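Model it.
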Amino acid sequence: MSKSISCHPNANQNGKLGTWSGVFTPTVLTILGAIMYLREGWVVGNAGLGGALMIIVLANAITASTALSISSVSTNIRVRAGGAFSIIAQSLGLEVGGSISLPLYLAQSISVAFYLFAFTEGWVSIFPNHPDLLVLLISFLIAFTIALVSANFAARFQYGILAVMVISLISVFLGSFAILGKQGMIHTPQVWGTFDGGNFWQVFAVFFPAVTGVLAGVNMSGDLKDPRDSIPKGTLLAVGLSFIIYICLAYWLSRVASPEELVNNLTIMVDKSTFGPAVQAGILAATFSSALTSMVGAPRLLQALSEQQILPNGHWLAKLTSKSEPRNAMLITGILAIGALVFGLAGGGLNAIAPLITMFFLIAYATLNGVVLLEQNLRLVSFRPLFSIPWIVPLVGLLGCVFVMFLINPTFSLVAITVVLGIYAYLTRRQLTTPWSDVRSGLFVNVAEWAAKRTLALPTDQERAWKPSLLMPITSSDTLLGSYRFIKALTAPRGSIRVVGISPEKDPALKEKLRPIMTAFGKDGIFAHHAILRADNLKSGAQVSMDVFRSTFFRPNILFLVYSKGMREKDVQAMYNKAIENEMGMVLFAPHSLAGLGREQLINIWIREQSPNWEIGLRLRNLDLSLLLAYQIARNWRGSIQLTTVVNEEKNRLPADNYLQQLTRLGRMPQNTKTVVYQGVLDEFLPQASLTDLQIFGLPEWIDLNFVKKMVSETKSTCIFVHDSGHESALV
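Modeled.
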């Protein structure tokens, strides 16, 4: 920047803007817009002075709450470029920030066309011989050129617009007196109107857009010298001053004109002011300044979105000039604005989608209030704003914005919410990398803590809420990788796995090898966590891990071991005993070296003979976990289950068959579940199971690895050997 610009009292040596030029001026110019000049009289005429004051107070309560929320949160974080996007993204994540800010950017870009059409309409009403198209084109080129030069130049230009509006308001004030042929304030205010233009809320809906615009200065956050100081001061000052002006104008209008005049004459302020052309100039200034503010703010929002890769391949749009101007984003915004102008000129019905544009602004306001309300209630130490507000303030802002959305247009409200949710779903799938931390983790931790406290107050058994949570000690990442597909079938979609890498010495390579596998589990929707433990061998590492996890709230409920030829029976027995001591189930996974998991279709559960008592009680004898795991795997494989038992005498065949049928029914097993009863010795029928993809056996109290090897060999299938923890039930 040149020295002449950097010497500006509201800018530093880098051309950054201060409170007055960067926040207050664009905000107050946006709030004091065309609705103030052309619709406030209509509101007073319909609602009466009392009704109008109530509408103004209610509307400002919502926007003032939003302004207070913005002011509070902006003193707690370092607001980066993008204004509202930066605030929301730093609190709720890039996905939420992008899903709300992308439609907001489009709304701001299209708003340029709305404001320029309003400016053209006002201009032609004064100069009827001027062609509409020419006025529209020239006004766009002027606004675009000013915005393209720099934010500093636009801020300087807005001083002139502000001066015109001040003169127009002075002319209105002088209209209170009987001078220059004006009658002055001769009418007695009507306290409550007849609402010929609709009921109270319909009139409110017409007025409410007048007081929006609190983001005009916030959007300039990237160009501010000190956003933390300027945003609260400039925004609150603009909101407060505009509120006073609206209140005073309502009283003035009720005194200078009758209700009939106010309702039927939309340019009543021009007629009743001392110098009408000054008010006409104010109307033109208001509409043009709103177009200019949108033209300056929207590209900065687009640049911030692109910088964080919200838009795919947005590097070109994220570029800034040497003077920190988003020229590329400015060009795209200009193209969008031209497109909206052409659409409007072609009779595209821009006015028909105006409520939708308003919805995107209101969603952003509601979210900003929600951010503050959330952070206040989380009570995290990180939320310590220099400007604190009571919790009722963001609550009023949040509920007020939602109420007004559905008051103005319920259909467009639902459309806008659907658009935001659709973008959020898209951004979530892209798995954006967040360059900062946000409060989402704190939110989920608080919810988890609350749930933990509630759970601890309930009965200890969690049979109805059971889901597989594996603890898997390993010494090599190959063990985890080789059993990946089976673990996925065992845990998806709500289960979890905690992998403990065991090494006698510090082994950073093992941790790095586990990391991509954990990421893969996460992409498959399975909660997975890993840690490295220094221990002499698998047995001692597994025993320590079970002791440590026993004291955690979300503790694993299954010890998952992968059988290998080098395993020692006494080590497996020791781990089994420790699992029983810690009230954990155990699964010994023994994959077949050639068959693997086969077609991943048929699961066979081998059930021990129950003679002489073939009755089903509330607890099954080491069978609950087998049934639950079989059901879980079959659901993920979309396969089927077979219950198989072997009896030694013919007289036990019928009781055994009845037992299996009853077990299928009471256990609510899939309808295609089959039952098979053999008579003889187990070894005779093992070859018949060779077409089964997975065999499930009960794990006896005394580990016999020879039996494990034999079952895998004889069935020519992958086998798992299961022991219950006593805290699961297949019959609940």
